[in-house]
């Protein structure tokens, strides 16, 4: 497992749809039992479970795990602090997405109004 002070780069994420817990462990530098624990602590982590309760992580899950790892091991956050930080990031993303949708709708409505005025 990579220690907090170890700054070696993590490997690139392959272009696969699903990853096993062992693959994610290697990609993120975290042991499988730690990944299972983080699933309980971070609601953002929800791997797909298939036959025999086997976990299959998607690319987004791997990115979230790397972010959690960075918050805990490199930035020194506690589990609770990292959880709050991730939830804050999600809220900002939601607001940004909503603003983008509103701008797009407004542009489309203005275009419709121009067509109707002709």
From TrEMBL:
Gene3D superfamilies: 1.10.1660.10
SMART domains the record matches: HTH_MERR
One Pfam family in the UniProt entry: MerR_1
Limits of the HTH merR-type domain: 18-88
PROSITE patterns hit by this protein: HTH_MERR_2 (PS50937)
The keyword Disulfide bond appears for this protein: no
Chain segments annotated as coiled-coil in the UniProt record: 88-115
MF GO annotations: DNA binding; DNA-binding transcription factor activity
Annotated keywords: Coiled coil, DNA-binding
Keyword DNA-binding: yes
Matches recorded under InterPro entries: DNA-bd_dom_put_sf, MerR-type_HTH_dom, MerR_fam
Record-linked PANTHER family: BLL5018 PROTEIN (PTHR30204:SF15), REDOX-CYCLING DRUG-SENSING TRANSCRIPTIONAL ACTIVATOR SOXR (PTHR30204)
Protein name: DNA-binding transcriptional MerR regulator
Organism placement in taxonomy: Bacteria, Pseudomonadati, Pseudomonadota, Gammaproteobacteria, Steroidobacterales
């Amino acid at each position: 497992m990579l220690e907090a002070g170890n700054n070696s780069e993590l490997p690139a994420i392959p272009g696969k749809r699903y990853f096993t817990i062992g693959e994610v462990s290697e990609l993120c530098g975290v042991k499988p039992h730690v990944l299972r624990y983080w699933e309980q602590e971070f609601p953002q982590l929800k791997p797909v479970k298939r036959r025999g309760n086997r976990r299959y992580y998607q690319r987004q899950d791997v990115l979230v795990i790397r972010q959690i790892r960075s918050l805990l091991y490199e930035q020194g956050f506690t589990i609770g602090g990292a959880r709050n930080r991730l939830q804050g990031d999600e809220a900002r993303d939601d607001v940004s997405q909503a603003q983008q949708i509103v701008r797009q709708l407004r542009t489309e409505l203005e275009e419709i109004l121009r067509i109707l005025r002709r």
